[in-house]
Records
---
Amino acid sequence: MRNVNDILDLTTDEIDDLIETACDIIENPKKYSEVCHGKKLATLFFEPSTRTRLSFEAAMYELGGNVLSVSSAASSSASKGESVADTAKTVSCYADIIAMRHPKEGAPYVASLNASIPVINAGDGGHNHPTQTLADLLTIYREKGTFDNLTIGFCGDLKFGRTVHSLINAMSRYKNVRIILISPEELKVPSYVRNDVLEKNHMEYVETKDLLKAMPELDILYMTRVQQERFFNEEDYLRLKDSYILDPPKLANAKKDLCIMHPFPRVNEISVAIDDDPRACYFKQILNGKYMRMALILKLLKEAGTI
């Protein structure tokens, strides 16, 4: 059974095909409106979510399918101690495909080993978030027309930011991509990302605390929030939460075609004053996530022989 736990589970050719499908969905939505008629997506979300859960559900509805939803651990048998493996086996009896978010790294992978239907990782702890990366890739493609020869700045929480880790992994397979990692010392990218992705793939990268100095070089600025839920104590969170706040003056020396991205939710790290700037792409990014999830659902159901 084909599953997607990591963005690297998809080849670059498969990502190109997903982007092609997503662009066709954008141009011809009626063509896809009944493709999944009679099929069911189970969204198993054991961690809070707005965009990811709703975009998966909107994706399935717009493909003509239906949704079964668990919106919190408290509303499922997980609150009684049921294992991820048993949950996956049970839900396989009711649905055709699963999207799972879980606070524990590797939980969707465990589900995929036990389910008899495709499983999509919708975010596992601070580890991976492959469908957010698909949204990011479609945004980059639609804004820049290429994945090669780009300088990408990641700013904020690079330690716990699963979207950052996934996108760095994805970009490691393209040509002449330069990465600038902007964060306080305590929130630097984990050593496994530095060693196993950046250095292993001979990617050019720089670590800095200075957003303003990096700004003129950037083709893409990927902002992230400092995630309160990943901290073990309130004091550290409060000390670091306002480390980087993007406002109009900070864009004074930015490129005219800079693409500003953010996986959301936003707290205060991007001023609302930037929302009307043509370089702000984060709401486009949210919409692109729905189209890429539609394309991925179609791909996995077709490979499973369900549609």
---
Amino acid sequence: MNATHFISDNFVLQSDIAETLYHTYAKDLPIIDYHNHLSPEQIAANKPVKNITDAWLNGDHYKWRAMRANGIDESYITGANTSKKDKFLKWAETVPYTLRNPLFHWTHLELKRYFGIDEILQPSTADAIYDKINTILEDKTPAQLLEHLKVEVVCTTDDPIDGLEHHKAIKALGIYTKVFPTFRPDALLLVEKDSFPEYIGKLAACSGVAIATLEDLVEAIAVRIDYFHEQGCRLSDYGLEEIYASEFTEVAVDAIFKKRLSGAVLTSEEATEFASCILNTLCKLYHAKGWTQQFHIGAIRNNNSRLLEQIGLDAGVDSIGDFPAAKAMSKLFNSLDRSSQLAKTISYNLNPSQNEVFATMMGNYSEANVPGKMQWGSGWWFLDQKDGMEKQLNCLSNMGLLSRFVGMLTDSRSFLSFPRHEYFRRILCNLIGEDVKQGLIPNDIEFLGKMVQDICYYNAKNYFGFNMK
């Protein structure tokens, strides 16, 4: 593949209006990445990343899936005994075949923005690119990579029992990027898991609350929420197949909880009743703290049991599910709204056939003096690409208020993924520019520019209320 300067200044931008909106209003804004899976331990260590395979391929299930689809042997993807360079070369072999997959755009945006590389990554360029990148990475810490793209805020994804020592260490470093934890309590809901009783023991230990009853459990959870809040946390998150919203009574759930702690196996109805109670309780605690709650809904995970056993969780064998969503969302949100305990909420769907379902559901629970309280989140995971983002932006425009949207996030494990914000900003500016070209919206650059800036940065800054001191 012969091409240089593929990522031009006006990449994706197809009109003068789009170019002006991007270059004048969007391009230089800082980044607030309010949901990702970066390692706070790695940031706190403050050591150079050094090798592109570690920075780019380790844990990146997007690239793993592409390599598998290209017929690459698993030893070059997740194998422990394969050299870092050989893994990189196999990725370079795969890249030309990712044409029209978002990985092709992401890869070359990252090469250009972090390393000044214009060449297409492919076997003929791989050796030179590998050496050049590693020379640059030799002196680049994760904090420096974040600052390079003006990443102002990063919100990691953290278990309620996490001590957050790395977040404290990061704060002491005084780096440009503020790194805040996010409360991810999925393990508290999955009562049927074999590990649940042991997990409750760990929760008891870190909270200082002896847990024998539902009341004890809620007290321990509240202690951990207080602790996370003290460390700057302002968001929670869930990664669920579907929202739990079954009818429950606290008396019945207390009995279910005690039964599970005794080692007994629960029925599916009991497990759902327990999860519904805990989820409802968590949502009320978030509201009391002024947090935002996020729901990532709809993935069917660990489809390939062979790779799950070989590699473990996050092996890159998850896909889009077809779970019902509307009734449970309505039931949970309505219950919380009726008691005036519905926190600011962002919901993300993975099945594009449910775009309108999610967009319209969030419009049911607005609140005076809280603009954009209920958000339908950006294109997530398999929808985090040009077509998916455009569909999300168009659907949100049709069903809600695009102007109040809190914008993009990476949902990534890589410190090199932040050009995805640039990708989103270019797509947004181009979409608005096309509307102007067609006479669908006024050609008012100042107004449109402010709208773009709000979506790309200011809405998120105002919505989450991070303590930036």
---
Amino acid sequence: MNAHAISSPHAPAAIGPYSQGIVCGEFLYTSGMLGADPERGALAQGAAAQMRQAMTNLGAVLAAAGADFSHVVKTTVFVQDLAHFQEINEVYAGFFTGACPARSCVQVAALPKGALLEVEAVAWLGKKAAQNG
């Protein structure tokens, strides 16, 4: 397996033994992104603000791999309370143009740092990535 870690100083550092993202073949697999400010580590206030920051953090990891949101083929959103579903959808939709990626959204009992949500993604980087990796 030819895989390598991706990281961005513009996204929060990992808070455990994992990478922000891994490129394997033609795909980037990201870890879950919280809605935390990368410099201070503090969570944004409220579900919409956390979604905006989580997606911004995800964008930073995508960029570190030479990708952007147009490369995302699948996301998973973990949310502490599905009552926030509509407001996080509105923020989420603003990060995609054209066809949105496939997505799962599940309610969970708890998230790291008491976050309200977490977002992970799979992005297709193309055949060039597989040749350069």
